[in-house]
Amino acid sequence: MRVDAAVLRGLNEPWSVEEVDLDGPSEGEVLVRVRSTGLCRTSEHLSTGVVPFPFPAVGGHEGAGVIEEVGPGVAGLEAGDHVVLLWEPACGRCRWCVRGHTNLCDLGANILLGPQLDGTCRFHAGDEDINQEFLIGAFAPYTTVPALSVVRIDEDIPLDVAGLFGCSVSCGWGAAVRTAGVEHGDTVVVMGVGGVGSNAVQGARCAGAQHIVAVDPVPFKRENAERLGATHVAADIDEAWNVVSELTRGQLADMAIVCTAVTETEYIGQALSLVGKRGRVVMTGIPRPDATHVEMSLFEMLMYERHLCGHMFGSCNPQADIPMLTDMYRRGQLVIDELVTRTYPLADINRGYDDLRSGVNIRGMVTFE
Ligand SMILES: [Zn+2]
Ligand SMILES: [Zn+2]
């Protein structure tokens, strides 16, 4: 079929919205009619090179829609199923999947390669093959993806926001609840409260944190974080340190979750300075690929038993956690609709990313008819 898709053709180039060909599903794949896709910062990281990815590529990974067609060999899914797209497939059989860490599935090695799992592409422009961001490519009204890259959701969950569960909600909520392991009474700092950080605030709130300190230079984002459960806000790290020190009588925070657009190396030392004994720092924002050196006090790391953690998918198991998170949303325990600041037709995707960069969106969404 012929569809319009937002394609990245080179480093630092804008999204090119062009008509391309899309193949139907091969073995183990599904064709999804996409309803909406979030303008996640990570998709922009492909164009800036923070996330190395081969061009040309259809972008977008934070989407939801309805299965239109299932390919051969697909069990447990059928046309008409409502699904959230997952930027990482899970095989269910590798060492990590069977140990309950499907977020670390060995198939994750394929998400930065470009083509589908069998090495061929589903999108084409004439003779030219076009890759799919993280096997997904949801900046298009239809996409063909691995059946292992979708999770079915109930039909009453609105598809115009459901895509958020596939990245910003699961990664942010999970970074707080699963990776950091926030418990009742904890003091939690969230550095950067955009799409992912907003949900880290919500995760900390759900887990019973006593104090949640949201740090962001943008006033609009700080105000939004307060509506989501932040008990205190700060515009920078020095202000945050003073707030945390006062709140904890100098013992400092239990967790700091770094949800900035990029995890710059200096942010790690800053986050570690905000946590006390047995403090845990979770790196959620993506670091630059060439970042190898961090300045931090190894002596304090040792003496205070501090932890520095990475995360994939907020340490969630999406097939179990996304249905749970959508249920929490249905029951009013998670605020999701209000996270969508603006919606855009696909043709305006570059305006959507301009708005993200200028700090006026928590989340922009591309929506399809
Ligand atoms: Zn994302
Ligand atoms: Zn696996």
Task: State the main characteristics.
7-stranded mixed β-sheet, binds zinc ion, 6-stranded parallel β-sheet, 18 strands, 10 helices, 369 residues
Summarize, please.
This protein is 26% helix and 26% strand. The protein has ten helices and 18 strands.
Explained architecture:
It is built from ten helices and 18 strands. With 369 residues, the protein is an alpha/beta fold. Strands 3, 5, 6, 9, 10, 17 and 18 form a seven-stranded mixed sheet that branches. Strands 13-12-11-14-15-16 form a six-stranded parallel sheet, sandwiched between helices. A five-stranded mixed barrel has the order 1-2-7-8-4. Strand 14 (253-258), helix 7 and strand 15 (275-283) form a beta-alpha-beta unit. Helix 3 crosses helix 4, helix 4 (195-206) runs parallel beside helix 5 and helix 6 runs parallel beside helix 7. The chain is globular, with a radius of gyration of 20 Å. The two termini are 17 Å apart. Bound molecules: zinc ion (2 copies). One zinc ion (ZN) is lined by residues 90-91, 93-94, 96-97, 105-107.
Q: Topology, please?
A:
Blueprint: E1 2-8, E2 16-22, E3 29-38, H1 41-48, E4 57-58, E5 62-70, E6 82-85, H2 95-98, E7 123-125, E8 128-132, E9 142-146, E10 150-152, H3 168-179, E11 187-191, H4 195-206, E12 211-215, H5 219-228, E13 232-234, H6 237-247, E14 253-258, H7 265-274, E15 275-283, H8 298-303, E16 307-309, H9 318-330, E17 340-344, H10 349-357, E18 363-367
Parallel strand pairs: 4-8, 11-12, 11-14, 12-13, 14-15, 15-16, 17-18
Antiparallel strand pairs: 1-2, 1-4, 2-7, 3-5, 3-9, 3-18, 5-6, 6-10, 7-8
Bound molecules: zinc ion (2 copies).
